[in-house]
Amino acid sequence: GPISRACLAADRSAASPRLCACVQSVANRELSAADRSRVESFFGDPERAHAIKISDTRANDAFWDRYRSFISAARSQCG
User: Fold this and answer.
1) SS3 sequence of 7-54
2) What pLDDT sits at residue 70?
3) pLDDT of amino acid 63
4) For residue range 23-79, what is the model confidence (pLDDT) as tens digits?
5) For residues 39 and 27, is the Cβ–Cβ distance under 8 A?
6) Can you tell me the distance from the alpha carbon of 38 to that of 42, in angstroms, rounded to the nearest whole number?
7) Exposure string (b/e) for 32-63, b if CB count within 10 Å is 16 or more?
8) Which of 21, 27, 49, 70 is deepest in the core (most CB within 10 A)?
9) Is 75 helix (H, G, I), strand (E, B) or coil?
10) What is the DSSP letter of 68?
11) Which helix (H) or strand (E) holds 76?
12) Is residue 56 helix, strand or coil?
């Protein structure tokens, strides 16, 4: 999926096909399609994630809560 591809393309040392596929699988279960698209963009533009985190809108706050839940699930399920 798109998150898996973005994960591999980001060229981080810990990225592997297995890890990135696991993260994609968790994203598919935990996030809506719109949220997954937003998360995918973070790999190419980490500053975008920071901008959303510090913004003061209800929509971004709600997204950030879902994103933190996804990250927690991915860490526990993907190692």
Assistant:
1) HHHCCCCCCCHHHHHHHHHHHHHHCCHHHHHHHHHHHHCHHHHHHHHH
2) 97
3) 97
4) 999 999 999 999 999 999 998 898 999 999 999 899 999 999 999 999 999 999 998
5) yes
6) 7
7) eeebbebbbebbeeeeebeebeeeeeeebeeb
8) 27
9) helix
10) H
11) helix 58-78
12) coil
Angle at CA 32, nearest 5°, toward 27 and 14? 20
Specify the amino acid at residue 38: R
What is the rounded distance in angstroms from the CA atom of residue 27 to the CA atom of residue 48?
18
3 state DSSP class of 4: helix
Global confidence as pTM: 0.89
Query: pLDDT tens, 2-23?
Result: 999 999 998 788 889 999 999 9
